[in-house]
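Minutes, project huddle
Topic: does the predicted pose make sense with adenosine-5'-diphosphate bound?
PN asked that the exact inputs be recorded in the minutes so nobody has to dig through chat later. Recorded below.
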Amino acid sequence: MIEVRNLVKKYGNHLAVDHLNFKIEAGRIYGFLGPNGAGKSTTMNIMTGYLGATEGEVLIDGHDILREPEEAKKHIGYLPEIPPLYMEMTVREYLDFAAELKKIPRQKREDAVTAVEKLVKIKDVEHRLIRNLSKGYRQRVGLAQAVLGFPEIIILDEPTVGLDPKQIIEIRELIRKLAKNHTVILSSHILAEVREVCDYILIISRGRLVASDTPENLERLLGESETVEIEAKASSAEIREILKNVPGIEQITIRRGTEETTYADILQKKGEDIRERVFLAFADRKIPLLMLKTTRPSLEDVFMELTQKNTVPDAFARRLIQEREEDRENAGSL
Ligand code: ADP
Ligand code: MG
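Predicted holo structure (tokens), as shared on screen:
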């Protein structure tokens, strides 16, 4: 349905989108999840033909968005981060105008506009000036514009930003309703939102895709990446030295402890249980371990880990990517 291939966007020297590759299939709600500045809006603007790419291509139902924009754009409705509303128009005038731009045939325009007004519940404000509407209502008008003509794919950039909790719930319900007949892609920097609404998550960090899967699979895969947390009466250098020859360790992160002790988070390789080995390694050196326990990261931990470290993809991301490649290989050999 949508194929994004090797997409790159540079602003001057700044790499905002860094070789993105993904596919969007029909009938799902996709979530672009990433902190502010990750490249979500840039990617969406390129996918919808508002912005040219530096490299790479976007195919919408096989049509290149830059080479065949008319054909490609027919399939998409887009609500940008800042909806392009005309403040001096009434809601109805604006939607009639949007219908014209979308080349909805004249005789079908009225029905098309009325249908979306009813869907997003703005029929009763259709004669008000957009300028006089609340933020929540303006967002609905933006949404109505995106949905107008019922394109197959609806792309929404941070659709709930700036809304109050009641409005957020209403917009989410609307998105779910839309998803029954449309493919929806939305972006958000809020994990809870994406988890609640979407059935497939693409995590973007610094312009790169660091993980993509269903929320359940992300939780499951990450649940397997167990960390062993220790507190030892040793310096960080001693801890690294002692653990150097212990097999099954993926990565060690040292955290400051008390004056005498140090904490370390040891990420173990998949399928390993390193607790006994760690215990014995410290015992061998007669260095007391004051604490040793396993912790499973939550989706929140993983999101933070994936998006806030300087080195992305890190161990988690590598594991996710590795798993996906294995899955793909397995699928291929069946
Ligand atoms: P997101 O939507 O995930 O918050 P954006 O796509 O808006 O991220 O921005 C990605 C990066 O590109 C950011 O570092 C941002 O500062 C930069 N950026 C976005 N738009 C422009 C622009 N028009 N000119 C220069 N830099 C930009
Ligand atoms: Mg944005």
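Observations noted during the meeting:
- The chain has a mean pLDDT of 88.
- The radius of gyration is 25 Å.
No decisions taken; revisit at the next huddle.
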